[in-house]
Specification:
Blueprint (H helix, E strand, L loop, with lengths): L7 E5 L3 H13 L9 E3 L4 H4 L6 H10 L4 E8 H10 L11 E4 L2 E10 L4 H7 L5 E5 L15 H8 L17 E5 L5 E5 L5 H8 L1 E7 L5 H13 L9 E7 L10 H9 L14 H6 L2 E4 L2 H10 L7 E3 L15 H21 L11 E2 L3
Parallel strand pairs: 2-5, 3-7, 9-10, 9-11, 10-13, 11-12
Antiparallel strand pairs: 1-6, 2-6, 3-5, 4-5, 7-8
Helix pairs in contact: 8-12, 9-12
Length: about 375
């Protein structure tokens, strides 16, 4: 049966005969009979039940599913039992779609997908829990499409029904994202969606832009990171970066900018300047420019991004470059930038008061 990624061989986890057959096929192909399957669910609510303890997990699941992504959701064994019972699955055989976290017997890892393929959804909606494996187990190739003799091969392997709708949408395995017990996440592998695509789906990416990327925009980056790194500051995974429209890569932040930040107990980090690129503009969720000129230059790189490029000052005024001025000017500029950032990030909901830390180092 197809998913949007690859064809798979599926069985109902509530059918002892079907599950035993799927395990036998896996074993015959050299796999472990005890390994966990991935639950291929009909709807996102099946994944969300295991994400309830962490707002970041709920956010990531909502942004990625349904789609070509497998989630590995870490939950305590106690929570797993409670949540599984709540959705009426306590009678399933042990460890059908959950395994133990290596070195931690108290944590379960739920493996789940919610494919977006319409045909798959129709079938999955009629099954309580559908688990699957790759079609290579029964000699049907790489799964991008099925061969002409697929039905004959499948019958020989004991598969009762073949659904062939032609080549799959992506023709590659699903990407995998782990949702950790600490409330965070990790991109474990890429497939149908690249890391760039995955991050664009669920991360808020804020980009600050000035001229040389050595004064204003790196101060803004450090200030925003400082605010968002506080526990409870945001429930959305947020990536903060900066760039310049007329600079060379690799220059350090000016000493005065570093000192101005340190006076407010803000870590300047190990900043190095970067030239603004088309890709940076495309990837950013929102771009805050220091002046109208900076905004226009960002728009010139990607005209279609016009709506997400704004001046950092909500009043629409330019922020004057402190370069060459005394330390007091840098301090004044940093204080103004800090106020603008608080206003902007509070207004768009990035800076809130939920439970978990949400800042990322630029990568």
């Amino acid at each position: 049966m197809p998913t949007e990624t690859l064809y798979g061989v599926f069985a109902s986890a509530t059918s002892p005969v079907g599950l035993a057959k799927l395990r036998a096929l896996r074993t015959a192909a050299g796999g472990s009979a005890d390994a966990t399957f991935t639950w291929h669910a009909a709807g996102i609510e099946s994944a969300q039940i295991y994400c309830q303890d962490h707002e970041v997990h709920e956010h990531v699941a909502a942004k990625l599913l349904p789609g070509p992504v497998r989630l590995l959701i870490e939950v305590s064994a106690e929570k797993f039992e409670k949540q599984t019972t709540a959705i009426g699955l306590s009678d399933l055989p042990a460890h059908v779609f959950d395994g133990s976290l290596e070195g931690d017997g108290k944590t379960r890892v739920v493996s789940i997908r919610v494919p977006s393929d319409p045909m798959f959804h129709e079938v999955a909606a009629r099954c309580k829990v559908l688990v699957g494996e790759r079609v290579g187990l029964i000699g049907l190739g790489d799964g991008k499409s099925l061969p002409a003799d697929a039905e004959a091969i499948a019958r020989k392997a004991g598969v009762k029904l073949v659904v062939n709708t032609g080549p799959t949408q992506y023709g590659s395995p699903s990407s995998t994202v782990r949702l950790t017990r600490t409330g965070w996440y990790k991109i474990e592998s890429t497939g149908a969606w690249s890391e760039r695509t995955l991050r664009a789906k669920f991360e808020t990416q804020i980009l600050f832009v000035c001229t040389g990327n050595t004064c204003r925009s790196p101060m803004a980056e450090a200030i925003a990171r400082h605010y968002l790194a506080k526990p409870g500051a945001t429930k959305r995974p947020t990536r903060v970066a900066s760039a310049g429209v007329a600079t060379s890569d690799g220059m350090a932040m000016t000493p005065e900018a570093v000192e101005a930040l340190e006076m407010s107990r803000i870590d300047a980090g190990r900043h190095r300047s970067r030239m603004l690129t088309r890709e940076m503009v495309e990837d950013a969720t929102v771009i805050y420019a220091m002046t109208r000129s900076h905004a226009h230059q960002a728009i010139s790189l990607v005209p279609a991004a016009k709506d997400k490029i704004q001046l950092l000052d909500p009043s629409g005024r330019d922020i004057t470059d402190p370069i060459g001025g005394p330390l007091a000017t840098y301090v004044q500029t940093a204080e103004a930038i800090a106020g603008f950032i608080r206003t902007r990030l509070t207004a768009d909901g990035t800076l809130t008061l939920p439970r978990k830390k949400g800042i990322l180092e630029p990568g």
